[in-house]
Specification:
- The chain is mostly helical.
- It folds into three domains: about 80 residues; about 80 residues; about 25 residues, no CATH class.
- It contains eleven helices and two strands; from the N terminus they run H-H-H-H-H-H-H-H-H-H-E-E-H.
- Strands 1-2 form a two-stranded antiparallel ribbon.
- Pfam families: Retrotran_gag_2 (PF14223).
- This is CCHC-type domain-containing protein.
Length: about 250
Amino acid sequence: MLFYLTTLNLAKVLHEDAPTLKEGETDKQIVAAVEAWKHSDFLCKNYILNGLDNTMYNVYSQVKTTKKLWESLEKKYKAEDVGMKKFIVGKFLDYKMVDSKTVTSQVQELQIILHELHAEKMELSESFQVAAIVEKLPPSWKDFKNYLKHKHKEMGLEDLIVRLKIEEDNHVFEKKVGKHPMESKANLVEPKANKKRKHFGEGPSQGKNKYKKFARKCYICNKQVQGHSAKDCHLKEQSKENKSHVIEE
C-alpha cells in the first residue's frame, strides 16, 4: 500500500497534519493549498480503506484523517510483526530433518525460513547458518555430520549445499546397487575366477578322461591301436637286432 500511494504521489499525506485556515484568510494561494491537501487526504484515505478486508472497513472508516488511520494500522500490524518474529524463530529452532524426505528439499525449506528471518531484520552470519544446517541433518547422515563437524576449513553455505547434493546422490546410488560399488565389482569378477578354477582344478582321472590319447598307426608293426605308439612297440627291439646284423655283415 505504501508503494502504491508513493506512485500516486500521495504518501506525503500519511504523516502530515491537516493545515488550518486563519479566520478571514483571503489569500487565494493558501486557500488553494488547503483545498488541494484535503483532496489528497480524501483520496489517500479511501485508497487505504479500499485495500482493507470488508470486515475491517467498518472499523476504520470512522477515522477522520489519513494520518490517524495510518497510525492505527501501524500499531495493529507492528504488534503482529513482533508475534511473527517469535513464530519464525521458533519455527527455525524446532525444524528437524527426517530420512523420509530428500535432504536437498529440506535444505531449501530451511533457506526459506532463514530468508524470513532476514526479512524481519534478524540477520544470521553465514557460518552460523552452515553450522545450523549441519546440526539439523537426519539421523542416517550421522557419519557425514561428524565428518563436517571435524573439518578444519570453514565452508560457505553454497559449498555446503553442493557437498550435500553430491553425498545424497551417492546414497541414492548405493541404495539402487544394494552394495558398495567396489563390492559389486568384485562380485562381477568372481564368477570368472570360479570358472577358471573349475577348468584347471579337475582331478587326475578327469584330466585323463578329458584329454584321451587318440589312435594312430604304428610305423613299426603297422598296427593302429589306441594308446599304442612306436616307442612302446615290442617289435622295436627286433628291428634294432636286425640293424646290428646288417652292420656286422
